[in-house]
């Protein structure tokens, strides 16, 4: 049996994620008939059915579910290999640090100072992104090391916890709940988070768009403006609240929200002395400011 090509994996993953050949073809920028033929050719090559097709729906078979998991990993590896090769061949290599702006526990300036004093350091480049995108940036080779909020998708990554802090809810100062000193999630029933999901479900700092929703606010300026008008509430680590006091916003503790843990993460196969230097700097600075943090508990398969 010949090995599968990257093109075949991309076609298969598009159909497997969309579960609709028409939508998958549009996503790939191609017509549906050649996509259908390509998937059938892949099934013949493997000798197994990857999809169950009816006139109403497309479903993955057991073989398709296995291939989807491994194909995603393979495609991530191919993408990362290209990005890392370009980075390694650069005439001016840098250490790319992925993070969400202001979600660094206030550690970043001192971490960068400590890291830059290490003989193994490279010039740092900040790779800014929205909440939760940093782990994928590391897997895709778009960043070398990152500051991430836990829990996160740790596939292919190693990490060390840096600090744990309470999560507060940001409310409009005029909100009746702002008159109270402490809240619980049930108190937030009927209020919305920046992604449109119910605040009473308690998903701190996650901003995944809901189906059919308009583009959610993702930067803090937009989020705080909406909080001030009473349109939304926002779950923020205490360090973010300290750095962004605003007259129109009140921050209140929520008794049944879990604490937020900030970690430094990097690809498991990283061999860069600069990555190791950054991790050492982050851990030493955090320990000096906040003391030791319990190691992260990783579940099997993550």
Task: Compile the SSE list and pairings.
Elements: H1 6-18, H2 21-28, H3 32-46, E1 51-53, E2 58-60, H4 62-88, E3 95-99, H5 108-116, E4 124-128, H6 134-139, E5 145-150, E6 157-165, E7 167-172, H7 220-228, E8 234-237, H8 238-243, E9 249-253, E10 260-267, H9 273-290
Parallel strand pairs: 3-4, 3-5
Antiparallel strand pairs: 1-2, 5-10, 6-10, 7-8, 7-9
Describe what this molecule looks like in 3D.
This protein is an alpha+beta fold and 302 residues long. The chain has three domains: 6-85, Winged helix-like DNA-binding domain superfamily/Winged helix DNA-binding domain (Arc Repressor Mutant, subunit A, Orthogonal Bundle), CATH 1.10.10.10; 90-165 and 260-290, D-Maltodextrin-Binding Protein, domain 2; 167-253, Periplasmic binding protein-like II (D-Maltodextrin-Binding Protein, domain 2, 3-Layer(aba) Sandwich). It is 37% helix and 18% strand. It contains nine helices and ten strands. The chain has helices spanning 6-18, 21-28, 32-46, 62-88, 108-116, 134-139, 220-228, 238-243, 273-290, and strands at 51-53, 58-60, 95-99, 124-128, 145-150, 157-165, 167-172, 234-237, 249-253, 260-267. Strands 4-3-5-10-6 form a five-stranded mixed beta sheet. Strands 8-7-9 form a three-stranded antiparallel beta sheet. Strands 1-2 form a two-stranded antiparallel sheet. Strand 3 (95-99), helix 5 (108-116) and strand 4 form a beta-alpha-beta unit. The radius of gyration is 22 Å and the shape is flat. The model is unreliable at 204-215 and 297-302 (pLDDT under 50).
């Amino acid at each position: 049996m010949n090995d599968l090509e990257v093109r075949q994996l991309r076609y298969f993953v598009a159909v497997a994620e969309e579960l609709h050949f028409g939508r998958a073809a549009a996503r790939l920028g191609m017509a549906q008939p050649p996509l259908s033929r390509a998937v059938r050719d892949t099934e013949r090559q493997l000798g197994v059915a990857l999809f169950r097709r009816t006139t109403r729906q497309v479903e993955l078979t057991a073989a398709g579910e296995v291939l989807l998991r491994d194909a995603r990993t393979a495609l991530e590896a191919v993408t990362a290999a290209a990005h890392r090769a370009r980075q390694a061949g650069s005439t001016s290599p840098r250490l790319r640090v992925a993070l969400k702006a202001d979600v660094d526990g206030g550690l970043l300036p001192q971490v960068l100072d400590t890291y830059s004093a290490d003989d193994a350091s490279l010039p740092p480049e900040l790779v800014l992104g929205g909440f939760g995108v940093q782990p994928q940036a590391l897997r895709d080779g778009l960043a070398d090391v990152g500051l991430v909020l836990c829990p996160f998708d740790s596939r292919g990554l190693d990490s060390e916890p840096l600090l744990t802090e309470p999560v507060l809810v940001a409310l409009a100062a005029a909100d009746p709940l702002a008159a109270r000193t402490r809240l619980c999630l049930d108190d937030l029933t009927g209020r919305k988070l920046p992604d449109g999901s119910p605040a009473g479900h308690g998903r701190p700092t996650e901003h995944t768009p809901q189906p059919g929703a308009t583009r959610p606010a993702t930067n803090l300026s937009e989020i705080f403006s909406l909080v001030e008008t009473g349109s939304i509430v926002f779950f923020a680590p205490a360090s973010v609240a300290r750095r962004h006091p605003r007259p129109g916003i009140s921050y209140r503790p929520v008794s049944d929200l879990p604490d937020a843990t900030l970690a430094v993460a990097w690809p498991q196969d990283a061999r860069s002395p600069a990555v190791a230097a950054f991790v050492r700097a982050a851990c030493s600075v955090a320990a000096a400011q906040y003391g030791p943090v319990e190691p992260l508990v990783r579940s099997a398969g993550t």
